[in-house]
Amino acid sequence: MQWMTLFRKEMIENWRNKKWIWVPIVFILLASMDPVSNYYLPQIIESVGGLPEGTVIELPDFAPSEVVMMSLGQLSSLGVLVVTLMSMATIAGERKSGVLELILVKPVAYRNYITAKWTVLIILVWVSLLLGMLGSWYYINILYGELSIQSMLLVVLFYGLWLTLVVSVSIFFNTLFKTPGIVAFLSIATIIFMSVVTQIFSHILEWSPNNLTLYIMEMLQTESIPSELIWTAIVTIIISIGLLIAAIITLRTKELAN
Amino acid sequence: MQEIIDSINWAIVTPILIIQGLLALVALLDLAKAESTNGSKWMWVFIIVLANTIGPIIYFIIGRSRD
Fold first, then answer.
1. Where exactly are the structural domains of chain B?
2. Could you say which of A220, A232, B49, B65 is the most buried, measured as most Cβ atoms within 10 Å of its Cβ?
């Protein structure tokens, strides 16, 4: 009951600050940009000019699965940046401005407060991802060749877990620091650090969440779900839940100390 | 140049242009209704209109003042 109230408050707030409009639009643009621009690359190169007469530019014909990976590549860099920036103030901002104290005057459980925020962000990110990849799917089918909607939905399902982890990392740092800039910086630094560690210890960290896109590519190419993908997905979910619990504990101890 | 413009399949490009326009429009409407922003309003109008896609995003992330 209390959770629903917090959930609704958060939904309304994200509607008022237009996150429900601009985040999906940005995801659609990010995911559709590469399929379209790569298709028109020959024309773009031609119109920019500067090449000697008679130059033949051989560009590879991309398979639909390769184009999906291009879209995911955009989401992994700029998409992750957008997710961290739009979530950097979700708790930190309320702590800084004192709204949190107003909320916690009432007997609000910390776990309700944090999980409501987390859920709203997750829904927002998943809906944005779904719309974005549908845009990408639309262009792939027009420009590159057939790609089934089932495989695209599987891509959304597994890639969504990666963004879930990003949101969880951001929520965790939200409870540690009051300055939104620091929260965003540390979230991005953590994700970069994770990818470096995954690359260095690639033989041990087979199921690191950073490998999700790798296995998604494998899934698209072999048209079956590799077992590594399942295990990586499970590890990602466990880390996300762990971060969420850590966030609840951190906020509780921080606020009680004040 | 003309033939390049003709060669573009507008059925493909139009949805993207519409979505970009929508993003800028929402940002401008939000800006018009906002009581105050971080930085002057006119500066944000220019950023939203001139910097395609990136402008509205930057406005939503750092331009809106938290209330």
1. 21-67
2. A232
Residue range A198-217, pLDDT digits in tens: 999 988 888 999 999 999 99
Quick check: A40 and B4 CB within 8 A? no
| Lookup result for tokens 């719309």 | A131
Q: For the residues of A161-219, what is the DSSP string, one character each?
A: HHHHHHHHHHHHHHHH-S-HHHHHHHHHHHHHHHHHHHHHTTTT-TT-GGGHHHHHHHH
Give the tens place of pLDDT for each residue, B4-20: 667 667 778 889 999 99
Q: Is B64 helix (H, G, I), strand (E, B) or coil?
A: strand
Structure tokens at A24: 């999906």
Residues of A in contact with B57 (CB under 8 A): 22, 26, 82
Structure tokens at A62: 């991309």
- Can you give the residue ranges of every domain in chain A? 2-39+64-257
A104 touches chain B (CB under 8 A): no
